[in-house]
Specification:
The complex is a heterodimer of chains A (about 250) and B (about 100). With about 250 residues, chain A is of the alpha/beta class. Chain A is about 40% helix and about 15% strand. A 7-stranded parallel beta sheet of chain A has the order 3-2-1-4-5-6-7, sandwiched between helices. Chain B is built from 5 helices and no strands. In chain B, helix 1 packs across helix 2 and helix 1 crosses helix 5. Chain B is globular. The N and C termini of chain B lie close together (about 5 Å). The chains are: A alpha/beta (about 250), B mainly alpha (about 100). The interface between A and B is medium-sized, with 16 and 16 residues.
Chain lengths: ~250, ~100
Amino acid sequence: MMNEPKSKNLVALVTGGSRGIGRAIAERLAATCAETVIVNYLQNDAEAEKTSKLIAAQNARCVLAKANLLYPEEIDKLFEQIKASVDHLDAFVHGAALGTFKPLLTIKPNQWDLTMNINARAFLLCVQKVAPLMPAGKIVALSSLGSQRVVPNYGAMGPTKSALEAMIKYLAVELAPVGIQVNGVSGGFIQTDSITKFPEAEKFIEEVRRRTPAQRLGAPDDIAGVVMFLLSPAASWIYGQTIVADGGLSLL
Amino acid sequence: MKIKLTEDEIFATIAAGVAEALRVDAAKISMASRLFLDLGAESIDILDIRFRIEHALGFKIDQAALIRSLGEGLSAGQIQEQLTLGSLVAYVRQQLQQQP
């Protein structure tokens, strides 16, 4: 891969790394440039173990780190575990996300807090812990089209991703002087378990497929490729941007 | 570290989390209260309540095992019918007893 980092000596952290897009990124990191991939996950031990095996199959070390990023105390513990395993980080990819699919007007306070705190606040709290461990490095957060465009029943998630993208810009400016690049990837609709939880999922997926110029949904690996580009030297002049990779869906 | 709590204490912990998450009067929550059908919980609220219990008691709940504890092969409607405060208390109590 011409655009991917070459030397296999990086230490990377992927939140939400046990399944879907996070797993694809963790595996790609292990295959191309990482000697250690720390995989944070929320709950599914079996899926995390599968990811661990995929990473090991690429001759990289995997550290599984179970933590609920909703709670600052658990983020503290996560980074205690990380510091016990590695002495620095080169790359941080924030894929952890959670949500409910319903109109914004029906969102209850606890549902707002839950989605906002995991999707947006957790990124900030993790970056605050990552930066001191990263003398120089790259951070990439995963966003979605709902941050900029209205997607039916995405009212709980869209604003959290807007907050995430705003943070990407602010953090890019604050961290650039210390050699840390912060960017994002907005991935359109990706074929993962999450998309099947949309109301009337089959109809929704068919509609997305019909409206996407590339005539298919994205695959986790489509997003992993863009993340790897942003982690590579080829992206060294990109700061605070959220790259849209959506098969052309948002062009129409 | 094993946490020793009575059934009443487990109920109080869970009821407090449920009341806060769903903004319902804690006094109106009983062991028989059905989370979906009586208290108006939605799927994401169950996740929220689960997180609150985990955080308060310091152990992780296996959601699939929790659902299995209600009965094997239940439909979504049957789960909504059977997921009560009492079933949550029973599951948490059993898990706490199994902790090393």
